[in-house]
Design brief:
Layout: E1 6-9, H1 25-38, E2 42-46, H2 52-64, E3 69-75, H3 78-87, E4 94-101, H4 104-109, H5 115-130, E5 135-141, H6 148-160, E6 165-167, H7 177-190, E7 198-202, H8 210-220, E8 224-227, H9 241-250, H10 265-276, E9 293-294, H11 297-305, E10 324-325, H12 333-342, H13 349-366, H14 371-378
Parallel strand pairs: 1-2, 1-8, 2-3, 3-4, 4-5, 5-6, 6-7, 7-8, 9-10
Helix pairs in contact: 1-2, 1-10, 2-3, 5-6, 6-7, 7-8, 11-12, 13-14
Bound molecules: 3-methyl-2-oxobutanoic acid and zinc ion.
Residues 14, 139, 141, 167, 169, 171, 202, 204 line the site of 3-methyl-2-oxobutanoic acid.
Length: 379
């Protein structure tokens, strides 16, 4: 089996659905160009039928992107597919992403339909999208809660209708990793034509398991992952691109590769956070402000002896300028000595001990000790 994982970025579609995070056309183009530099394979540029502005943005992105596939989302409706096909006309590599609910709760309470009718509509949508573009991705919304034999039937039907990719979203972020692994493995065992399409993971983070479920899906055979920068997206968000990319990079033993150049991860995280006005939590894996910051005495001492004692990635490899040693009342003498040396102060042990006592008093009071505070301490 091919072990190259296709990175499908949906920052500009699922990510941009976050209230207050809407971007204008120029901002979307800027993000799309940076995503291409980062090395993503597919950019989901928007949902063209949703508004004239989104239609125009998808079209503008389709005009400027040269390497990545540009994708537009649609429901399984004629007017949606027509709009996506029109917006994607300028794309060198266009993809239509169409689909419909697959769980009984969606079939009954969203579509007031039946499993049989859902399959018919899914086949129609794929065939209709195929009349415009070769590359058609089908999403089985809420696949995470769908009846598994029905999901197998639906997957088989849309592949037969020509879907090149079948996306099996855990729309509500419900599954546990072993359940995701089981579901994808089941489909590989029960869908005869499954190797004619790429199986895609699209997981939401309602229980904080989006990344873990995505990795479980890859291990069971999925070869495309749908992710966003900083994990932004509906409710608790989507799978975070930087987490999946670095898991596959750090765990080379798993044997998977991506086209991502990790050096762009931190810069694009900042760009998206600034443009969307959506701060990144400080303890966010890979790109958070504290991801490479060491603050307790034991960790600082170990880190100063050898970075790998407390770091599994080099900050520079993901575009973070350097690790940081933060001085707080939890810091030890090693960190204090290190910071003083960087400021040009070499203290003998008795002097350092005395200063350390005063340092702790100051740190209890001020919480964080900065270079100016240290200069004041040394006098
Ligand atoms: O979460 C989801 O199911 C989606 C689909 C529209 C792909 O975003
Ligand atoms: Zn989604």
């Amino acid at each position: 089996m091919n072990n190259r994982i296709q990175i499908f970025d949906t920052t500009l579609r699922d990510g941009e659905q976050v209230p207050g995070c809407q971007l204008n056309r120029e901002e979307k183009i800027e993000v799309a160009k940076e995503l291409e530099k980062l090395g993503v394979d597919i950019i989901e540029a928007g949902f063209p039928i949703s508004s004239p502005g989104d239609f125009a943005s998808v079209k503008a992105i389709a005009e400027v992107i040269t390497e990545a596939t540009v994708c537009g989302l649609t429901r399984a409706r004629k007017e949606d597919i027509d709009a996506a096909a029109e917006a994607l006309k300028p794309a060198r590599k266009p993809r239509i992403h169409t689909g419909i609910g697959a769980s009984d709760v969606h079939i009954k309470h969203k579509f007031n339909s039946t499993r049989e009718k859902i399959i018919e509509q899914a086949i129609w949508a794929v065939e209709y999208a195929k009349s415009y573009v070769e590359d058609v991705e089908f999403f089985a919304e809420d696949a995470g809660r769908a009846d598994l034999p029905f999901l197998a039937q639906l997957t088989q039907a849309v592949i037969k209708a020509g879907a090149t990719v079948v996306n099996l979203p855990d729309t509500t972020g419900y599954l546990l990793p072993h359940q995701m692994h089981h579901r994808i493995s089941y489909l590989f065992e029960h869908v005869d034509n499954i190797h004619q399409a790429t199986i895609s993971m699209h997981n939401h983070n309602d229980l904080g398991l989006a990344t873990a479920n995505t990795i479980a899906g890859i291990q069971a055979g999925a070869r495309q992952v749908e992710v966003t920068i900083n994990g932004i997206g509906e409710r608790a968000g989507n799978t975070s691109l930087e987490e999946v990319a670095m898991i596959l990079n750090v765990h080379k033993d798993l044997g998977f590769t991506t086209g991502i150049n990790p050096k762009h991860l931190f810069p694009i995280s900042n760009l998206v956070s600034n443009l969307m006005g959506m701060p990144v939590q400080a303890n966010k894996a890979v790109v958070g402000a504290n991801a490479f910051a060491h603050s307790s005495g034991i960790h600082q001492d170990g880190f100063l002896k050898h970075a790998q004692n407390y770091e599994i990635m080099n900050p520079e490899d993901v575009g973070v300028p350097s690790s940081a040693i933060l001085l707080t009342s939890r810091s030890g003498r090693a960190a204090l000595r290190h910071r003083l040396q960087l400021l040009g102060f070499e203290l003998e042990k008795p002097e350092l001990d005395k200063l350390y006592t005063r340092f702790l008093l100051m740190a209890d009071e001020r919480k964080m000790i900065h270079d100016e505070d240290l200069k004041e301490l040394v006098g």
